[in-house]
Structure formats: C-alpha cells, structure tokens
Amino acid sequence: MPTVALSASFVRQVQCAPDRKKTDYFDVGQRGFMLEVRSSGGKTFYQRYTDERGRERQYKIGPADVVSLDQARRKAKQIVAEALLGADPQQKRREMRAIPLLRDFIAERYLPFIKTYKSSWRTDETVLRIHVLPRLGHLALDEIKTDAISNLINTMRADGYASGTMNRVIVILRYIYNLARKWKTPGGENNPAAGLTAGPDVQRNRFLSEWEAENLVRAIHADENRTAARSILLLLLTGGRRNEITFAKWDYIDWKNRTLLVPKSKSGRARVIALNQSAIALLTATPRIDGNPYIFPSEVTGKPSASLFFPWDRIRKRAGLEDVRLHDLRHSFASFLVNRGVSLYVVQGLLGHMHARTTQRYAHLSQETLSDAADLIQQVVEFPAQTQSPSS
What is the mean pLDDT of the chain? Predict the structure, then answer.
C-alpha cells in the first residue's frame, strides 16, 4: 500500500503495479484518502474512516474519470467529519439507495395492491401511465415535491384537461404516498400531494344532437384504427361503460338472446347489455384473432386498451365535437331513448344503474320534445279563449 502525494498528474499517469489486480495509493497529506488503481485501468477514489464503534470502514467516493481530485478530497473530508460527529456516512448512503423511484413503487407495490380490491385499477394504471410517469416516474419518492405536482397539474390545465382528470391525478398520488407511509417505505414520510386540488370538479352533461351523432358515426367509420373505432361505435349503440366494452370477450356474447355479459360491473354485480340489430351487425363484422379471447384487443399489445383517449380525440376532432367526452356517448344513448318516449325505468335497466336518480342525470329532454309536450296543453286551453260577450 504505497503512500504518495496524490496530484492530478499522478492520477492521470499512474498504473497498477505489475502482476497485481489492484494497487491502493494512499495520500500522504490526507489520512485515509486513497486512489485504487486496477489492472483493467479503472481508477476509483475511496476514504477510509473509523466509525463510532471503532470499526474501520471504507467509503467509495467515485471513479477518477468522473470525479476530479479536488472534488474527491472535499467529499473525503466531509465523510471523516460526519464519522467524527457520530454519523455513519455508509448508513446514510444505504438509506438513500433504499428509497424507491416512483415508477418502481407503483409497479412493484401500488398496482399489485389495488388489483386485489379495486375494480377500477385499470383507470389508475392509465392515469399514471399517461400523466404521471412520463414527468415524475424517474424521481425517487423523496425527490417529488409539492411544486413538481403543481407544475404537472398546470401543464395538464394548459393542455385542456378537465378538473376531474386533474383531481384524479392528485387523489391517486396522495393515496400512493399514504400507502408508502403506512408501509414505512423509505422516502414516503411526507406527502407532497396533501392539500392540493385542481379546483372544483364541475359536473357537466353533454348530449349529442341527432345531426352530431350522424357526424360522429361518419368520423368513426373514417378512422384508421378500426379496432378502437368499432369499440367506440358499440359504446354509442349500447350505452355501455368504456371498460365494459373494451374488456368484453367473445364468449360473453349470447347471440341467441342478443346480450353481452358484464361479469362485474361498476356496482360490483354482473349485468347484461342488450344488443340491438346494429350492434349485432357490428360484432358479426368484427374479425376474430386466433387465440385471443377479447373482442377489441389493442392492435399493438393484443390486450384490451384501458384508455381510448387518443383514437377518441382524433375521431371527435374529425367530427367537430372537441368538447364531447367519451362518457358523453352514454349520456346521449339515454337521451335519445328518453326523447323517443322510453321510460326512465327501462333506460335505467339498459344502463345498468342501481338507482333511478342516477338515470335521471343522464336523461336529457331535447327542446323539441319539451315543445311538443307543451303543445299538448292546447287540447285543454285555447287562446284566444272562445267566450260569450257580456251583452249576449
């Protein structure tokens, strides 16, 4: 273990001693500070120190082609000072390295956990994949601050996302950190999403007019992603929920009774979706993929698409309906039926609602229907009234 005056030129020129795998060169002016030189040519700075229990430890500072000699000296002095004050530099490093990246915590802990009880876990997965992971996934849990989440929400707002979508991002992140703290995951002690909100989630119902529906159908038929287009058209034809259609399997179809089984709906119960002749024709024309049980598998992965956002966004823009959400097709399905005289009770059954008040929110009466209803009063009351004059 030779002792030398480490200098920048020495670090550049020194070679490993002949017939040895590595040689340690200790600095004459800074106790415990050393340069390890390997026969392969690799050079690494280290600092040896004694911990509070009197044990000799060695701290790897970094490779000499990345860390300069001056930087390594400063780090070495910091390590010795921490050790003298009772801290263990190695322990601090181990603690930092134990903190998972957000993307790893989501993949290894969060998603496996929510899959055990949450029927809408695919929605969480989609929200995280589209909005959160691209911006925050590479950061460790303790690196994500409130400002970073606020910036993410501001970006989503500028991109035109609804308050409901932004609030969902915040709620999911808040829950992730609550679980991290509950499970005593390193880096999860503080919750950067606590107290954040994207503003009120304004409830709005958008209903298609008949001519808008016609434009939409034309745009659906023109879309290049035929699998996604067919699933969107089936949503409009049945009033089904997105996941009820995108995750539908061929063996869920009862061709004789014209129904589509939903093994577990949003309410947690099984239900059946009634299929009209147009829906049957669409399904009959949909090609099957050998060995794939799904009706509408992704053309890329072969699995159902948890989100139809991109094909839907393309279709609605082509139809001139940029303010229409995919879920508005379900609202419009109910509206079309109610305006043709179908009772709320029947519409409730078609939509799979457990409570009539939920169906009432979907049941939009068009102005034409309201005007026709108002005209019925003329059968009882006329204007001007046909009355006798006072002199008669």
Answer: 86
pLDDT of residue 176: 97
Q: Give the type of residue at 45.
A: F
19, 101, 242, 254 from 348: Cα distances, Å:
84, 45, 17, 21
Are the C-beta atoms of 168 and 127 separated by less than 8 Å?
Answer: yes
| 280-317 confidence digits (pLDDT tens) | 999 999 999 999 999 999 888 888 886 788 899 999 99
φ and ψ of 147, to 5 deg: -60, -40
Cis peptide before 384 (omega within 30 of 0): yes
Over residues 171-190, the pLDDT tens digits come to 999 999 999 999 999 999 99
pLDDT, position 383: 56
CB-count burial class (<10 Å; 0-12, 13-18, 19+) for 374: exposed
pLDDT digits (tens, 9 = 90+) for 342-376: 777 787 777 776 666 666 666 665 566 556 655 65
CA distance 157 to 144: 20
Tokens of 92: 């601090």
Mutual angle of helices 69-84 and 89-97, in 10-degree steps: 110
Evaluate whether 198 touches 154 at the Cβ level (below 8 Å).
no
Phi, psi (rounded to 5 degrees) for 61:
-85, -50
Q: Return the SS3 of 30.
A: coil
Residues 6 or more apart whose Cβ sits within 8 Å of residue 98 = 186
Amino acid at position 175, single letter: Y
Which three-class secondary structure state does DSSP give residue 311? helix
> Is the distance from CB of 330 to CB of 241 less than 8 angstroms?
yes
Give the residue from 160, 170, 172 showing the smallest Cα distance to 121.
172
**CA–CA dist 50, 84 (Å, integer):** 8
